[in-house]
Design brief:
This protein is an alpha/beta fold and about 240 residues long. It is about 25% helix and about 20% strand. The structure holds pyrazine-2-carboxylic acid and zinc ion (ZN). Zinc ion binds next to loops.
């Protein structure tokens, strides 16, 4: 056997098996429409489709309302759905209004690190915190609320901003034997991305359905979010890739 043949073998084998795995999972570059099929172990996580994040709200995400019909259609294909709500106290630590002299989109140093400061939004029990009225997913099984501690934010549906206080979602998914999450909603570069990254950290497969999300894009946050997600093994897919 030539000297380089044996060292070549594992590499070729690896590439071959990776390509095969991609095809099986439906993640190949030339993916045909509708080839990703959510199964009994898949959960759709509908992130923060709340009035504050829609046009006319206090922290509107451009085009936010457009995700609603896309999500309604996708939801029909999932046996398991979790809905999240950003759920802040009045005077929350993530609100610029809580700091004299601070403006929205500036930052503050908090106990757990740098916090982007936002306009007041999603205050517990207000209309702004309610789910968009046209979201029609009555078969959703769990609503998980986050960011409800006065001094700590939580973009992620899994862990609060200190990176270690769990919301309980990982435990819920594990107890229900769900191992794969499909993420949709608002905003791509904050709550969706942080949830997807934490899903990977917690050991779940994670796919973000891009056209069922919209981003805020402050200081390059949208491109960075996709880069971080790609690096963490989050799959970027379109709603047409899902078998509905
Ligand atoms: C979100 C900023 C502040 C989100 C929540 O849902 O992406 N963004 N709070
Ligand atoms: Zn928030």
């Amino acid at each position: 056997m030539p000297a380089n043949a044996s060292s070549d073998f594992p590499r070729r084998f690896f590439l071959g098996s990776t390509a095969a795995a991609c095809l099986v999972a439906g993640f190949g570059a030339a993916r045909a429409a509708g080839t990703i099929k959510p199964d009994a172990k898949s959960a759709l996580i509908v992130v923060d489709v709340q009035n504050c994040f829609i046009d006319g709200g206090t922290l509107p995400v451009k085009g936010g309302a457009a995700v609603v019909p896309v999500i309604n259609k996708l939801a029909a294909s999932f046996q398991n759905i979790v809905v999240t709500q950003d759920w802040h106290t009045a005077g929350h630590a993530s609100f610029a209004s809580s700091y004299p002299g601070k403006q929205p989109f500036e930052t503050a140093e908090l106990a757990y690190g740098t916090q982007v400061l936002w306009p007041d939004h999603c205050v517990q029990g207000t209309d702004g915190a309610a789910l968009h009225k046209d979201l029609k997913i009555p078969h959703a099984e769990l609503v998980i609320r986050k960011g409800y501690r006065q001094h700590m934010d939580s973009y992620s549906a899994f862990f609060e901003a200190d990176g270690k206080t769990p919301t309980g979602l990982a435990g819920y998914l594990r107890e229900r034997n769900l191992n794969q999450v499909f993420l949709v909603g608002l905003a791509t570069d904050f709550c969706v991305a942080w949830s997807a990254l934490d899903a990977r950290k917690a050991g779940f497969s994670a796919l973000v359905i891009e056209d069922a999300c919209r981003g805020i894009d402050v200081n390059g946050s949208l491109a960075k979010a996709w880069q971080d997600m790609q690096g963490a093994g989050v799959k970027r897919v379109q709603s047409t890739d899902i078998d509905v």
